[in-house]
Amino acid sequence: MPTPTENQVRDALKTVTLPGLPRDVITLQLVKDVRIDGDTVTVGLELPTPACPGEVRAESERLVTEAVRGTGAGKVTLEVSSAVIGRPLRSADARVRQVKNIIAVAAGKGGVGKSTVSTNLALALQRFGARVGMLDADIYGPSLPLMLGPPERASGASPEGRLQPALHRGLAVMSIGFFVEREGAVVWRGPMVHKLLQQFLEDVEWGELDYLIVDLPPGTGDAQLSLAQLVPISGALLVTTPQEVALIDVEKAAAMLRKVEVPLLGVVENMSEYVCPACGHHDHIFDAGGGKRLAASLGIPLFGGLPIDPRIRHGGDSGMPFVQGAPGTELAKHFMELAAKTAWRQAALHLAGPRRAAGLVAIS
Questions:
Q1: Which residues pair with 239 in a beta bridge?
Q2: Residues with Cβ < 8 Å from 286, sequence gap 6 or more?
Q3: Is the pLDDT of residue 359 over 60?
Q4: For 36-82, what is each residue's pLDDT tens digit?
Q5: In sequence order, what DSSP letters do the residues of 225-255 get, joined into one string?
Q6: Which strand (E) or helix (H) includes residue 270?
Q7: Which of 57, 305, 331, 347 could staple 269 via S-S, CB 3.0–4.6 A?
Q8: What residue ranges do the domains of the chain occupy?
């Protein structure tokens, strides 16, 4: 078979759609280079996030390789890179222009582990190589200063007179908890909450970030509405526990987010089961299957379950989040998988565009 031409290779790649993405790799401009040397074809494939699920990357490489081999190539070499795709910038959007994605972590009620998920999600994305920051939007009950431990750099004023975020484990972080004593209480009405969040978004030097993870307070109140008004939130990850009382409140949070046009990325079920360390018995303390039912009713993917494990609690209380404190464990892998699925789903929604996002098939 004669050596394929570049046009033949690119035509073949027009038939390749990566898992969960809306269109082929040529249309989405994910093929950055095609080089032919004898019977060897080299393809430069750029993924839309470094946080790509392992099975998605393997399948993507297989699909591209098979398509190129079909043109008569004797050897196919893939050069895989990544560049985080962000939300389209509006001309009037002056806030956080250097932040590509703003991902809110939401729950309908307190006590479901939302801040734990937020913290480990941010650190997992960072481990994939992304530039990540965190905004603690829980004004009345900020948790991030405790959960992230002592900062490498405290929050303060920059030389230009703007606010400088604290630096925790390489994450740029801003929280009202930096400015209030631990035993103090923030007693503010809605307009003050709005003003503070506006200041955190406009006056903080966030720098260039691939992802800003926003730890929302529970419920459907002022902070959620203010953020939706102030910045275009790229997507929201919903955190629930399996029992019905949690599901009801998360459904309300999801309805509110959809009303303010925030795309829902998926559901993570926290405290899904307890595994006895002595005998290995699995016990569904808070019921079973609630996250799956919630995801199905909302028409979004379930990104998996996180077990009840004292080590996760200890990591938050001690200021050493589990993803960083025990990165090689099976439990840390759950958080890495959650981060990958969240980032891939977010990228897919951007690539689909607002008109097609509603019908996009997600990787779960």
A1: 268
A2: 241, 242, 243, 246, 271, 272
A3: no
A4: 999 999 999 999 999 999 999 999 999 999 999 999 999 999 999 99
A5: HHHHHHS---EEEEEE-SSHHHHHHHHHHHH
A6: strand 264-275
A7: 305
A8: 6-82, 99-359
Q: Which two tokens stand for residue 194?
A: 């709005």
In this predicted structure, what is the pLDDT of residue 156?
A: 86
Domain 99-359 is found in CATH 3.40.50.300: yes
**What is the per-residue DSSP string for 127-177?**
HTT--EEEEE--SSS--HHHHT-S-SB--EE-TTSSEE-EEETTEEEEEGG
pLDDT digits 0-9 by tens, 97-111: 899 999 999 998 888
Distance CA 50, CA 297 (A): 30
- Give the Cβ contact number of residue 266 at 10 Å: 24
Q: Of 126, 289, 276, which is closest to residue 213 (Cα–Cα)?
A: 126
Instruction: Please give the single-letter amino acid code of residue 119.
Output: T
- For residues 86 and 181, give the distance between their C-alpha atoms in angstroms, rounded to a whole number: 36
Looking at 2.60.40.10, 3.30.300.130, 3.10.20.90, 2.60.120.10, the CATH number of the domain 6-82 comes to: 3.30.300.130
In degrees, rounded to 5, the angle at the alpha carbon of residue 104 between the alpha carbons of residues 100 and 105 is 140
Contact assessment for residue 113 and residue 223, using Cβ atoms and an 8 Å cutoff: no
Instruction: Count CA atoms within 13 Å of residue 346 on its CB side.
Output: 31
Q: Tell me how crowded residue 46 is: count the other CB atoms within 10 A of its CB.
A: 17
Token pair of 75, please? 């050897």
163-164/156-157 β-pairing: antiparallel
Report yes or no: 104 and 237 within 8 Å, Cβ to Cβ: yes
Give residue-wise pLDDT tens across range 193-252: 888 899 888 889 999 999 999 999 888 888 888 998 888 899 999 999 999 989 999 999
Size of the chain, expressed as the number of residues it contains: 364
Residue 183 has pLDDT above 80, yes or no: no
State both tokens at 168.
Answer: 């925790």
- Element spanning 291, H or E: helix 290-298
Mean pLDDT, rounded, for 8-27: 97
Look-up of token digits 């740029």:
172
